[in-house]
Every structure is written in C-alpha cells, then in structure tokens.
Amino acid sequence: MSTGIYPLDVVLSNTANGGFPNGRLSEISGAEGAGKTLMAACALAETQRAGGVAILIDTEHAASLDVFKAVGVDVKKLVYIQAGTVEEVFKTMETVVSKVALDKSNKKITIVWDSIAATSTKAEVEADYDQNTVAMTARLLSKGLRKYIPLCNAHNVCLIFVNQLRTKIGITFGDDKVSPGGAAVPFHASIRLRISVFKSIKDSQGRLLGRIIKCDVKKNKVAPPMRTMLFTIRWGERPGAWISQYETYWDTCDAAGIFKKITTQKRSFVFPSTGKESPEFTKKAFRELIKDEAFLTELKSAIAKEYIITEENISDEVSAEDVDKNEGD
Question: Comparing 143 with 329, which gets the higher pLDDT?
C-alpha cells in the first residue's frame, strides 16, 4: 500500500510500485510534530484511491478532519472508530477481519491505530490514579499481536501502528529514545519507521511554514533496511498540513544526482526512456512540471532506477564500523 511519498515507497519495497506491505504490521514512531499521523493519513488516502477500505482507530481522540481532507482522504467513506482501551482496539480489529473474511470482493483494507502510547488498558482505566499497572499494556500487546497478526496476514490487511517516543532514564551513550508498549511491536513489525524533524522551513519574517522530515527505516523484512529518506511537510496555505510532493521530488533527485545542475537555480535531467535531456527548469517551474503525467512517469522511473538495490549496483568495496553497545534501535 503506497505511503503517498513515491521515493519512500521505493525505499520500503525495493520495487517501482511499493509501500507498506499488505498482510503485515508496520510501525511509525517519532517525536511530536514530526508527521506520524500525517503519514498514516496519506496511507489511508492511497487505500481509498485504490478502491479499498480505510479504517482509523483513534485512541488519542484528536483526529483532525482538515488534516485528512488536505491529503485526499474522503472523510465520508472513512471508517472512523474511537476506542478507549487496548482490549477494545483488538476486538475492533478482529471484527473488521471477520467481516473481510465474509466479503468476497477482495478489497484492500488498511487499518491505522493512532496511537499505542495514548491507549490505556481496561485495568488501568478502572484503577485509581495511584495504583500501579506496570507493563500491563506491553503484556496485552504481546498476547493480542500473537493472536491477531496471523489473521491479518491470512486476509491481507495492511496494519499501521502509530507510536510516540519516550526517553530512557540513565542512558549516557547511544540512543536514549524508546517507543512505549514493550517489545511486542518491534518483534511483530515487518517495517519500523523512525521519523524526526531534519530542518524547519521559515519565511523572511521568521514564520514557520513547514518542515523537512527525516525518515529512517530501522527495520524492514521485505526490502533492504537501514535506509534514509527525506520528505517535506507544508502548512498555512489551506487548513491542515500536507506533504509537499514537488519539494520532496526536488530534494530527492537533487541529493541522488538525478538532476543535472545547470546553475544554482536551474536543473535538467535525462529521460530514462529516450535518453534525451529535458529543458532547463527552476524549482518554481518544477512545481507545474510534475503535474504532467508523462514528465512525472519519467521522473519516477529515474528515481526507481537510482534507489532500487540490485546485485549490479552494489559496490564491491565494503567496510565495517564499530557500533556502540548501548545504541538502541
């Protein structure tokens, strides 16, 4: 299922038409304001465009329809469920899968749980505020995923969990961030994404207009892992936030050397299908160029050729580096 960000689709699947794998669990974790819910919303929008069913399980009770509309989600067709506990979430997902089993239409299903960190257990909700319920969520997740993941795989459901990051106490070296919910999600997830703010985008008056987001693929069981991709988030021109496609394509192609740099402002690139060089264009003109389907197809082909790893394009020169023993995932 496409993420809505083509370069990231290629990196996640190592194919020209990829994204989040169906029948498997994918986790999106990161700091606040990095665009976790936005990425999940893009996946739901792509599901609807493919004629599938998009399901959002909102335990944060903070979903914004403006954000979902801005990325192309049809909120009238979106299956929106507010759940309060981990137990309710798993019961809801099992109900969805059982209905999928009865439906013979083979529609694509994407379920987004937003988010693990905001979800309490039934015991925690019923307990007093000073009562200790250590590791209850982790134990329930471990048991629930063992039961649910085989069902998810059998019925080809694309499952996406959104998670936050917390700071581990007493860590001096390495990664001091950890995603809540215990080890069950890292064990069961086929793809784990860690996103963070790479750079802020401001206007001449210092107003924040967007962010360049760094996406690290920490785990990938369907393609080469440990790869990094940048994409751009914008807001301000209309309600909500969205992914700036033309800036994402521009930065990706510029960083990979796909574009030929003519001047500081102007670029061109060679069409993969014909071998001819495109006319020169600026970043402002590029925004209109990618609206042309033929041009966008050539651009996607060039990105796929650059980022898909094969035996032919792997360098024979390899080196080993020491890794900090305290470094987390």
Answer: 143
